[in-house]
Design a protein that fits this description.
The chain is an alpha+beta fold. It has one domain (about 1-230): Transferase(Phosphotransferase), domain 1 (Orthogonal Bundle), CATH 1.10.510.10. The protein is about 30% helix and about 25% strand. The protein is built from 8 helices and 12 strands. A 5-stranded antiparallel beta sheet has the order 1-2-3-5-4, with no helix packed on it. Helix 1 (about 30-35) packs antiparallel against helix 3. It is globular, with a radius of gyration of 17 Å. About 35% of the residues are buried.
Length: about 230
């Protein structure tokens, strides 16, 4: 099998339309990986270590964005809700992930029907890097050492960090996920790097999906005050 995707803690190997996901710390992040494999066609599994699944294709989000001028609504919805579901599992494990990186995400197409324009339910996005997961205590995550501040998907509270240790609300992960979703919405031609990150500007940026379920769910996660921030897709 050939390695087609790799992060610090996960890798995917391919043999025709069979893919093996090998991961670390499966016992620690058991609920997270249960959510990860929930919608996949699992054909073999090594408990807390790896599982093999069938799919039409697997592609990194980075590679996908190189081919797409923008993502469709169904892609955006799946990206946002699939990873949010993984994070709900992670919360059940007692951990959180304060910020995301686009390099750690893959898109899975379950079958050829999806490739030809079938239901968005046949597309799944997976976040596959556990190296930055940290324990949640009383809805807070303690950071004890400096981190790379080049990431553009930071919440307001993460941007303010100047000293350590410090505790950050775990809902920072949903702000980061929403920012990433905004960033890929219109492809490489229009990035949030050029956007003044205010709530009013978020509303304007999302005007093309105004009043959809995704629109309101994203705005709930982009609240400036962590106390007002919540993941809710209804």
């Amino acid at each position: 099998m050939t390695i087609i995707f790799k992060t610090k803690t996960c890798q995917i190997k391919k043999n025709k339309h069979k893919y093996e996901l090998i991961y670390e710390d499966g016992e620690k992040f058991n609920k997270f990986f249960e959510k990860t494999k929930k919608n996949l066609k699992i054909i073999k599994e090594k408990k807390n270590k790896s599982f093999t699944f069938e799919a039409y294709s697997v592609e990194s989000l980075n590679d996908l964005m190189k081919r797409k001028d923008k993502l469709s609504y169904r892609h955006l919805k799946q990206l946002f809700t699939n990873i949010a579901k993984q994070f709900e599992g992670l919360e059940e494990d007692g951990f959180g992930n304060l910020f995301l990186n686009i390099d750690d995400i893959v898109r899975v197409e379950i079958d050829e029907f999806t490739q030809k324009g079938g239901s968005g339910k046949d597309i799944y996005f997976l976040y596959l890097n556990t190296s930055s997961f940290l324990p949640i205590t009383n809805k807070l995550i303690k950071i004890t050492k400096p981190f790379n501040k080049d990431n553009i998907f930071f919440s307001p509270e993460m941007k303010k960090v100047k000293s350590f240790p410090i505790e950050i609300p775990f809902v920072s992960q949903y702000y980061s996920l929403a920012l990433l979703t905004l960033d890929v919405k219109d492809g490489v031609k229009k990035s949030i790097k050029k956007l003044d990150l205010t709530f009013d500007n978020f509303r304007k940026y999302l005007s093309d999906i105004d009043n959809t379920k995704l629109y309101w769910a994203l705005l709930r996660c982009l609240e400036y005050n962590p106390k007002d921030r919540v993941y809710l897709y209804i």
